[in-house]
Amino acid sequence: MNPLIIRSPEVFREKQNIDARVHHRVTAIDLQKRAVRVVNLGTGKTLEERFDHLLIATGASIILPKIPGLNARGVYTLSTLQSGIALREAMDQAGPQRIVLVGAGYIGLEMAENFIQRGFQVSIVEQAPQVMRTIDEDLAALLAAELKKNGVQLFLEESLQGFELEGGGVRAVVTDRRTLPADLVILGLGVRPNSELAGEAGIPLGKTGGIKVNERMETEIEGVWAAGNCAEALHLVSRRPVVFALGTVANKQGRVAGINIAGGQATFPGVVGTAMVKVFDWEVARTGLQEREAKQAGIIAASVKIEGRTRAGYYPGAGKIFVKITFEPGNGRLLGGQIVGQEGAGKRIDVLATALHAGMTVEEMINLDLGYSPPFSPAWDPILIACRQAAGQL
Amino acid sequence: MNPLIIRSPEVFREKQNIDARVHHRVTAIDLQKRAVRVVNLGTGKTLEERFDHLLIATGASIILPKIPGLNARGVYTLSTLQSGIALREAMDQAGPQRIVLVGAGYIGLEMAENFIQRGFQVSIVEQAPQVMRTIDEDLAALLAAELKKNGVQLFLEESLQGFELEGGGVRAVVTDRRTLPADLVILGLGVRPNSELAGEAGIPLGKTGGIKVNERMETEIEGVWAAGNCAEALHLVSRRPVVFALGTVANKQGRVAGINIAGGQATFPGVVGTAMVKVFDWEVARTGLQEREAKQAGIIAASVKIEGRTRAGYYPGAGKIFVKITFEPGNGRLLGGQIVGQEGAGKRIDVLATALHAGMTVEEMINLDLGYSPPFSPAWDPILIACRQAAGQL
User: Fold this and answer.
1) What mean pLDDT do residues A317-326 have?
2) Rounded to 10 degrees, what is the CA torsion of A226, A227, A233, A236?
């Protein structure tokens, strides 16, 4: 078994008495009968399964552009384990040399690093004027420089128009500004919640497209639950429902749904939007709301940015770290933060994430008793320096 | 100038108009006259300086055993920059080979690593049954094993009785169980606040021996302030005054005192007792109260300990991490935490420190939206796994 599979259907069956049927697709939910219609993809047979409790954990699907050629040889997406295996096999077949990544989000950035390390020519095409829209433009510029330094060609503010094909295979990516020769293309344009099945059955969806759930992960239909990338979560800073297609959120929601279905009591209060990615030598992390996001949520926001060191300045390996803190100028409430830095920088985001959960102000945070020792931090952790600067503007 | 000196007296004078007089010792504080008596150590002359505000920042002194031979050649302590320079010079003079460190606290452990890396024979003598009393015995045992693995000889439950001297130099360390040949001895037995000067002047001291201060860092005498290792701080978990001789606390207290003296408004709410140290390949961190400390403070406490990984299991460099969480069984309030682990483990303590400041419960912490990406963490951060396990015991 692939070591990335945490638990096989056999283990579910033998150790936990859970009948995990893979290669079965649910095609309809009947809330009257409290039953689902299931197709066995192996035999093609349809059956009906009744339920007392139903958990919808249908995940998310890759967003695909509406252009021809998506099924051409050499055009890939990355979501399932199978899609990863297929891509790896294509890479191993010495053929492709020129890789074009469409989309400069997490997938695009992580792939770029991996392809460069394996010696390919890599280009990224991104419609936005910056990479990684989940951080601000000034910090994204650091990533763009890092990508270029490592040999990645970056085409910002260009949108995918189509492909040039030859004999059923891709030959080039066509943008609104150029034609990029490509042996292999990966589309990383984000995902959307798989909520159609729920929606068709009459289970209420939110404006986000995700399934509406309460803190217990129950939908508006009693005994019908939803968790993971198909379900909404409350953003604890904006107090608005969001869908973050992240494994951490899915894991926590699934645990809460499972406890409640089994008769226990658990709640999932919500998320603060924490995410991380490694881009060559930079660690990138973000949490809460960017200024732009705060404004969209009707919250007045201001930001400060500081440059510091990951360790005591004199200690070997002390690297750069940029910390941006976003806060409410009126009351000093922390709204979010972003970090770009070298080794040891990224996980500092967790202090900001924890402070967001606790609703702390930047003034309260100045005196946080964070860990210090020269191999790990300057005496004033960069997070505290940023908070000090933010508090100075109140 | 030594690069470890952040700001010289000249810079204080020229850039900030601060008359920083080094080599001057204050010998008495006269609260009636509101003046201090100062000896110029260069000329021996005594002068009197009047004050409107007085800040006492006298730091801490090394605790010395009451035995003869402390002034012998080869017997060192480590506190000031000068003592470090003297020790380094002794090391560089090819002479000493056998080093005995007395005390297995932060100083002893850090010195052991440095001396081993420079090729010396290193022994540690420690009175307690474990190294590093600020973490629990089970975690300390991991450090003891690491020290031994790296060639450090460890003599626990042995107390220093005296030295064997020869021609004015140390030849051996005598404990209650053996005589250890030694060319160089370093005493690392902790520090105590330098509060005599304040005490003699009638400025109230606490039971800790530190100078009593309020949140603004003012002593019980108006216009007389204290900050740093000579001053008390409120422990935010036990709600009792403590003296932690740490640079982080001193820095924060000094800032608050300075702002208030200059007419501003700032408060230092207190500490949670966070500390870190690197011991060869282990990162060690602690915050809040150990079970033992909680009991001393009259708080009922329980603990859980988990073993996890610093990164996704399949990611290169995924190391071990042990997380212990101490909490109140009644209401689930987090009381403290301890971490021992490989690269990337230690700074995770900051999540626990922040949660202690915010007064969070282990149940609230289960759903903290901490950063995840395979190079940085498993999907369930080890901190969250420990919180989950603690919450399961409520």
Assistant:
1) 97
2) 130
Dihedral sign, CA of A111, A117, A123, A124?
positive
pTM recorded for the entire structure: 0.97
CA-nearest residue to A273 within chain B is B369
For residue B94, the model assigns a pLDDT of 67
List A residues 355-374 in contact with B (Cβ-Cβ < 8 A).
355-358, 360, 364, 366-373
Strands, DSSP E only, in A127-177? 153-156, 160-166, 169-175
Cβ contacts (< 8 Å) between B372 and chain A: which residues?
246-248, 274-276
A324: β partners: A305, A338
Please answer whether residues B341 and B310 qualify as being in contact, where contact means their C-beta atoms are separated by less than 8 angstroms: yes
Q: Token digits for A120?
A: 């390919």
Per-residue pLDDT tens for A94-122? 677 999 999 999 999 999 999 999 999 99
d(CA B215, CA B118) in angstroms, rounded, equals 44
Residue with tokens 């590093």: B132
Which positions 5-34 of B are in contact with A (Cβ < 8 Å)?
none
**Crossing angle of helices B349-358 and A349-358, rounded to 10°:** 20
* Interface predicted TM-score (ipTM): 0.96
Computed from CA positions of residues B87, B88, B90, B95, in that sequence, does the dihedral angle turn out positive or negative?
positive
Residues in Cβ contact with B213 at an 8 Å cutoff, skipping those fewer than 6 apart: B219, B225, B226, B227, B231, B232, B233, B253
Write the pLDDT tens digit of every residue in A135-187. Answer: 999 999 999 999 999 999 999 999 999 999 999 999 999 999 999 999 999 99
What are the tens digits of pLDDT across the range A203-226?
999 999 999 999 999 999 999 999
Phi-psi region of A213 (alpha: psi -120 to 50; beta: other; left: phi over 0): beta
List residues bridging with A30 in a β-sheet. Answer: A35
Chain B interface disruption, residue of A367, A376, A388, most B CBs within 10 A:
A367
Distance CA(A111)–CA(B363), nearest Å, equals 37
- Other CB atoms within 10 A of residue A195 CB: 26
Alpha helices per DSSP H over chain A: 9-16, 81-92, 106-117, 137-149, 196-200, 247-261, 291-296, 349-358, 362-366, 382-391
Tell me the one-letter amino acid at B62.
I
Does B268 contact A at CB distance below 8 Å?
yes
**Of A45, A53, A51, A52, nearest in space to A27 by CA:** A45
In one letter, which amino acid is A269?
P
CATH numbers and ranges of domains, chain B: 1-51 (no CATH), 62-189 (3.50.50.60), 190-270 (3.50.50.60), 281-391 (3.30.390.30)
B284, B349 contact by CB (below 8 A) = no
